[in-house]
Structures are given as C-alpha cells and as structure tokens.
Design a protein that fits this description.
It is globular, with a radius of gyration of 19 Å. It has a domain at 8-168 and 212-237: NAD(P)-binding Rossmann-like Domain (Rossmann fold). 46% of the residues are buried. α2 (47-54) packs across α4 and α8 packs across α10. Helices cover 41% and strands 15% of the residues. With 313 residues, it is an alpha/beta fold.
Amino acid sequence: MVKLKGKRIVVTGGGGFLGGYIVSELNKLEPSEIIVPRSKEFDLRQMDNCRKIADGADIVIHAAAQIGGIGFIDQIPGDIFYNNAIMGLQMMEASRQAGVSKFVTIGTVCEYPEFTQLPFKEESLWGGYPEETTAPYGWAKKILLVQGDAYRKQFGFNSVHLLPVNLYGPKDNFNKQLAHVIPALIRRFVEAREEGKKSVEIWGSGDASREFLYVEDAARGIVLATQYYEGTKAVNLGSGIETPIAKVAELIKELTGFKGNLLWNSDRPDGQPRRQLDVSVAKSFGFEAEVDLREGLKRTIEWYEKSRKKDDI
C-alpha cells in the first residue's frame, strides 16, 4: 500500500475533466501538496518542464492528454500521436530521474485491438492492431506501458498503467470539435429540442457498443490504484457493462426531452465494433463502479443545462 497522506503529488492534466476529479479525490486523503501544472506554463513536450514538475514529487499521476472525438483525431492524427507520446515518455523519464516513488499512467481503452473477444481482458492488449480511427491515440498511450515495463526491469521504477473506458459526467467537454459521444449527443439533443427540430443526425449505424464509466467513479478507481495496485500489467477501469450506442442515444433523447426522430448516418465510422471490459483485477484492489448509466446521464444533462453558455462553440 502507498500512503498518500503527507505526500507531494503531481497530477498532470489536473485542470482538465478527469484530472479535476482526481485532484478532488486525492484531497480527501490529506496529501501535503497537490501540484497541477498548467499547459500554458508547462508544455510537457519540453523535457526541462517535465523535470521541473517532477522535482521533489513523491507520486506522479499522468492524466494529461490531447484528445477529442473520432472526427477530431482524423483531422490531426500526427499531432495526436506525437503530442501524447512525447508528453508521456518525457514525464515518465523525468520522474525516474527525480526518484519519484510511483508513476501512474492514465492510458485508454483505445489501446485494445479492433477485434477483441469480450469482455476485454488485459492480456488481450497485444492481440492485434487498435481500431484505425483512434489508433494514433491508442498507440501513443500503449508505448507508455512498454516504457513502464522496461523501466521496472532495468531501474526498479514503480510504474502502473490504467485503462479507463469511455468517461462522461459533469464538466465534460461539450465543444463541437472535441466532444466524445455522450457530451456530443447531449448537446445535439438539447439544441434540437430548443430549435424545434424534427430529427437529429448521429454518426454511425448505432450498432456499435461502448462501456461507459462515470467520471467520479473513474477518479476514485485511479486513486485506489495509486494506493493499492502494484501489478506489472495494465489494469482495466470500467463498469463491466456493454451498451449499444443506439440505446445510449435513445436514453439521452428521453432524458433531454427531445421528441423528434434519430437519423443514423452509416456513411460515418462506428469506430471499434464493441467494448466491454473484464474488471476483475480492479475489483481485487477495491474498485467497483457505483453510478449507473441512467443516473450518470441524468446528472450530466442537469449540469449541462445549468452551466452552458449560448455562445458556446
């Protein structure tokens, strides 16, 4: 067990969606200091900045990432790969040089092969190439698993790699260019309701499935792993429940009060066909999802309705 009370903890990406909830969860455990480096001041693509951040830290949780939906990745796949890879590689190396006692990498379910037997087991990670539309992001994170394993073998460096599924919740990114499936659908349905539209177009066929994890649950799982997980293999963080995108859309339609029709655009990509995780390893260190999809969507929609701005882009 790693005791977090009195420790100096760095959370890269701590000002972001997931990172903010990680910081809140950590604060419950009374660390001496939580450092949240801001990208405007500390560009993690520069090694000197990584060294400054890691200096004097006991624990580093690397949650910083450049990511958006399928369309966003398709526009700048090179940037997505390079920026995410270099930030992680350098942050881990700087942490090793600084003598950090534990490094926690927040990876992604996109690291799994496109066609993986359900439920996804951690040992299946190397069974094939990731789904093409998200592969630049998946590979950028996956190489950090290799780096962590190599550093453990050569230097005895304590690094763990977590694989959260699709996250959602209040404070998510609802920007049209960056939003993932749940915030994108919430925004479309709310706007369509207000504009009196009779239909909403949705990318894909609706047949693909995803597993979703409420962001507060994810943050709790990450902090539990920071305390209790010492394994050398990546570990899944999810609910263990597979849900078709069509069902998610119908649920959001109901909860937002949109009365029109759904138009599925099958010319647009579905992404990975199916996702569902085996979460038994996470259960071994005390993590289980607590907020079900309906309740989580309700909370997220309520937050969006109250906080959104009319000039939001």
